[in-house]
Automatic annotation (TrEMBL):
Lineage: Bacteria, Bacillati, Bacillota, Bacilli, Bacillales
Gene3D superfamilies assigned: YlxR-like
Any matching Pfam family: YlxR
Native species: Alkalibacillus haloalkaliphilus
Domain YlxR: 10-82
Protein name, per record: YlxR domain-containing protein
Database matches in NCBIfam families: RNA_bind_RnpM
Length: 88
């Protein structure tokens, strides 16, 4: 019996849904306090996951939920980058 590797689940900070990690976008704050979008999902730092969905990202921008999760100020450039990734 071959054991299927379990897919890692992560929770979207906006929708609170548990989703396979690959379907989410990770935003990271590193030790220096820089906030950036982590395409690899492996960068060091405090991470928060967002659903790969335009409405979710707009909601995150409005509610500033990433600021709370990352204990940092998330700039509009980050949200713009997220939105451009979603629309790809």
């Amino acid at each position: 019996m071959a054991s299927k590797k379990k897919e890692p689940l992560r929770k979207c900070v906006v929708t609170q849904e548990m989703v396979p990690k690959k379907q989410l976008i990770r935003v990271v704050r590193n030790k220096e306090g820089e906030v950036f979008v982590d395409d690899t999902g492996k960068k060091n730092g405090r991470g928060a996951y967002l659903s790969n969905d335009q409405d979710t990202i707009e909601k995150a921008r409005k509610t500033k939920v990433l600021n709370k999760h990352l204990n940092a100020t998330v700039s509009d450039e980050i949200y713009d980058e997220l939105l451009s990734k979603v629309s790809e």
